Request: fold
Amino acid sequence: MKKNTIVTTDTIAAISTAQGEGAIGIVRLSGNKAYQIFREIFSPSKPIKKYQSHRLYQGSVMNGANTSSLDQVMIAFMKAGKTYTGEEMVEIYTHGGSNVINSVLQRVLKAGARLADRGEFTRRAFLNGKMDLLQAEAVLDLIRADTDAARVQAIKQISGVLSEFISSIKKKLVQVKTNIEVLIDFPEEEASPKQLFDLKFILQAAHDEVMHVLKSYDQAKIIREGVHVVLIGRPNAGKSSLFNAIVGENRAIVTPHPGTTRDYIEEAINYKGVKLVFTDTAGIRSSEEPIEKLGMEMTRSRVEKSDIVIIVTDPSAASRYDEELSIAKEHKDNVIIAINKVDIASKDQIEQAKNAFEDYSVFPVSAKTREGVESLVQGISGPSLAPSIENAPVINRYRHKQALEHIELSLNAAINLIDQQAFPEIVAEEVDSALAGLKELTGEVTSQDILDKIFAEFCIGK
Reply:
């Protein structure tokens, strides 16, 4: 079978708990042979006249070859309909040792199931109408959530807040399209100015709502992915020491010798509900040494991908800041200056550094004593980045942003065409374009490539 091709007549199985030792392990099955496999491999601890759906039963998973027990388990059979995938499902709760749970999985596969692809359970839930594509993506967001704000945002998405918004916009556009079709079908009945104004009013309301949700992208993306912060500066400016002070452990190697950091090191912290991902990079300087050159290329690449650049300076060693100012001007909108080593620098040196960077946010710090470090981190995650968990639709993926931008352009074009008294057929084309964008968002009309890409991000077993 071709990779990522879903054959919904198959019965799939996978381990749904993390690998390694634990209290329990879960093997999950989905498909029209799930009940048949369940009856073949399971021996109840006491006679059962009739198995009921959504009930737990105690017994053993039997090794079919010699009827020996692989493990004592709890097992649940669930009839098609009220299940995660919409299909027949079985969940087997084993002891949590990796050998035990893998043995049970192999027994299930031998009985007629096949190993699930990445995200195939959720993909089947989507294909069987148990959730739309927005909700399916939110399942992955919930699994990956590492802050309270990210978890709350994912749960909102799974519950359908964004899906309901899309549905409300869709209803407005269908109403407009229906009225336009009447004008097209009965051209002899000339549309009154009020009719056209009413259509424009509905389109404008939909446009404004789309714009409002589009504005949520930057903040919602920060909640999901975090703020990416890169520390750069000259060798021995104290980047690695400051990095260690911020993340609270000695992750970066620190020595008195310039050029110690060759590769970049990344570490995330959760600061007041905001995920901050810090990257320590190689010192910026001219060098023909191949490894250092490669390190500086990687530094530049990380800077380009960052949300915030912290330029770390050593006022006790520098008299001019030409290199730092050049970088600051290039990334002015997202630059913060950390004047490091204030514990050893003189007041005049610190003032000189402050004056050099008077156009930027400046934080005097000492990586050694941790003076000013808390203020620096607070400055990064200031009020503009504070996560919002209001019960309003938000978008946090680039796919969502692209689709809504397309919808906004189509709605704006339709509004302008009505103002220009264009033919109804032309207005209808723009409304159709906006409707197509809405269907792509929820997965009503989505290419196989997009589905493959989305579900490939999932783990096997979800």
